[in-house]
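Subject: Protein record for review, amino acid sequence with backbone structure tokens
How to read it: Take the token row as a discrete description of the fold.
Enclosed: The protein record, placed directly beneath this head.
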Amino acid sequence: MSPPSRFSLKLRALLWRFLSNLSSSFFDRYFTTPRPPRASFVVSIPTTIAKPHGQIPLEFYGPPTYLQHRKPFNPAGGPGETKPFPVVINFHGGGFTIGGPGGDARWAAAVVQEGVVLISVGYRLAPEHPFPTGIEDGVAAIVWVWEHAEEYNLDKSRVIISGFSAGGNFCFTVPMRLYTELEQRKQQGRPLAASKSGKLAGLLAFYPSVNWTQSRAERTASNAISGVKGPIPKALFDLFDHSYLYPGPLDMSSPYLSPGLAADEMVLNALPHSIYIHTCEWDQLLVEAETFRERLKGLGKRVTGSMTKGVAHAWDKRPSLARGNPLRDEVYTEATGAMMKMLGGNV
């Protein structure tokens, strides 16, 4: 059977985006308590790596002290001045095809509560922008934050990446592509200026995909309960895969698709030392993520995080209405605790 046309993929993506926005943006925002926060402000930045060129919206979520003192930090001091803020750069989920930067607003609230700024990246989506556009937009976002850190009173030496599902994949693939980009710039005699170069202090990956060499059927077979408890229909999986991998075929073992299979040298050089991974018991991605967790530990990385029992993929993103979601709060507290250790325990 021939793969679907790009036109049909676009139509299907538009329908699923509408349905996704109805759930996450409408019901969660207006019928769930407490309500998630809105972005403090949005900055649109130009793409610098992926083609065709375009714009990438960055949604900033900041604590009150950041919003009051966004001007560059003056070491000499001044009335009410604050030191540069550490920052989490976040990548939303949605199979690389649906969703948006506002979908992780509850996670942003948990991060902001610790005095940390969160920037949610509106990377471009497939099928309009298939692999590797989203990853390269992520690289552009990190470089932009480094280059504009002083302007926005951000600490470029304390940058953490977070992401959910597809964004969890980006937690690993974006640093790997960033490492390659910086090495290529050095070889071409145009390295990133030392004054503009930053550091990744850690990664926070929630139920990430890390091994695309497996089919969906093989992933489900690796954790059979996911075929019964998993909430995502086959039609949506097909849309995700056909859209992101368009037009194909691709080398599925590429580190930019399957970071769990990347060479040891790439893993050691591109990824920060501290990594947090959260997985779900009823997820078809459970086994590959846990396998990668053990491999990272074996390579000497400091890996924390847990597997939550009795939940399926993206369980924390469903509107809970008036019930709230204590389990989500518990996991986010665990993750922000790991985040604070990556930042040295204080902001």
Remarks:
- The longest strand covers residues 154-164.
